[in-house]
Design a protein that fits this description.
The protein is an alpha+beta fold. It has ten helices and 15 strands. The chain has four domains: 66 residues, Multidrug-efflux Transporter Regulator, Chain: A, Domain 2; 68 residues; 96 residues, Lipocalin (Beta Barrel); 97 residues, Nuclear Transport Factor 2, Chain: A. The strands form three sheets. The protein has an eight-stranded antiparallel β-barrel. The chain has a four-stranded antiparallel sheet with strand order 12-13-14-15. β10 and β11 form a beta hairpin.
């Protein structure tokens, strides 16, 4: 049954269930939970148009990530349909699943090739096969879900500004270079990441804050004695922890960074790391063991797109160091056959790449 009072095509519950592959009972359950609000015909038939189908797509996507209906209802409450955000989440998850499957197929293929040539598999190889082919990794599924949560609209909750004083201080990251400074000015709280401007953060609760300029949140960790010992930044589907440090440690770190920038001194082994990373990126091969976990996760997600972009630039020529940025990242120029690029890289204390960015130069 269809109606023409609305501009879009309307489906009855039976048509919607059949074409999408759900049950009529399921549609009614979603309606009862407040997840769907179908229109009604003059005779009371439920009708589903573009808006309802888009919302249903969101609900089904979140269900596939293992969320309960109550959790989905809480996530979607008061929000307009955001199909692009849902599709981005699904795209990220599917890309990661494809990457994982390709890696596992390669392991299995190599093992079968070795056996076909009369070889045997060592204990380590058997353990690797058992571990890596069980399909238990969900890293980018989780990343995509975090992005979805981080991008939802936020509302300011009034709190007593006197609590802000306990958050003021310096915090240092382990996963990325530099740190973050929290200040309080005129009963307003501000955060400033190394090398960036200070931005106001707004309270959702006494420990949870959010930025308005980007979809990012700060959550402070408090000990049983009410001492703030760390904060976590939630952004781009990643959670980065920064531990609280005293002013003396913060000053030493800032002075060391200032000296390195002034002396234009690259991080040890950064040239080798950038050359290896560019080579891997061109081939679409990500060596996760040489990256910190947050970067490796994002790199795997974008590997195919980056490889395609770099391939279009032609053969790689000269790579040269040009300086240290204000954020402490080493800056390199890479000359390709068809264009010039700028690369920025940051290394963790153990030598793994923890920050990477590139852009095409005019």
């Amino acid at each position: 049954m269809r109606e023409s009072k609305r501009k879009d095509v309307l489906l009855t519950a039976a048509e919607c269930a059949e074409r999408i592959g759900v049950t009529i009972r399921g549609l009614r359950t979603y309606e009862q939970r407040g997840l769907l609000t179908p229109a009604r015909s003059a005779k009371g038939w439920r009708l589903y148009g573009e808006k309802e189908i888009a919302r249903l797509h969101e609900v089904l996507a979140l269900k596939r990530f293992g969320l309960s209906l109550s959790r989905i209802a809480a996530l979607l409450e008061g929000r307009a349909v955001d199909l692009d955000r849902t599709l981005e989440m699904q795209q990220s998850a599917l890309a990661e699943q494809r990457q994982r499957i390709d890696e596992k197929l390669a392991l299995v293929g190599a093992a079968r090739t070795k056996l076909s040539k009369g070889g045997t598999l060592s204990l380590d190889e058997l353990i690797t096969l058992a571990k890596e082919t069980t399909m238990t990794q969900t890293s980018l599924d989780l990343i995509a879900l975090r992005r979805y949560e981080q991008a939802r609209p936020r509302k300011t909750t009034p709190v007593n500004p006197e609590i802000y004083d306990r958050y003021v201080g310096a915090y240092r990251f382990d996963a990325i270079t530099g740190g973050i400074k929290i200040t309080c000015v005129d009963d307003r709280l501000f955060s400033q990441v190394t090398g960036q401007a200070a931005y106001e953060v707004f309270p959702e609760s006494e420990t949870e804050f959010f930025l308005k300029i980007v979809p990012a949140q700060l959550v402070f960790s408090i000990d049983s004695d009410q001492t703030v010992n760390a904060l976590t930044i939630h952004q781009n589907g990643v959670e980065l922890v920064a531990r609280r440090i005293d002013e003396a440690e913060a000053e030493r770190a800032a002075e060391e960074l200032t000296r390195r920038i002034r002396d234009n001194r690259p991080q040890p082994d950064s040239e080798e790391a950038i050359r290896r990373t560019i080579d891997e990126a061109r081939r679409g091969e990500i060596d996760a063991t040489r990256m910190t976990e947050p970067l490796a996760t994002l790199a795997r997600e974008r590997a195919e797109a980056v490889a395609e972009e770099l391939s279009a630039k032609g053969a790689l020529g000269e790579i040269r160091f040009v300086g240290v940025g204000v954020d402490g990242w080493d800056v390199y120029r890479a000359q390709f056959e068809k264009s010039k690029t700028e690369w920025r890289i940051d290394l963790a204390p153990d030598g793994r790449v923890r920050g990477l960015f590139f852009r095409t130069l005019p």
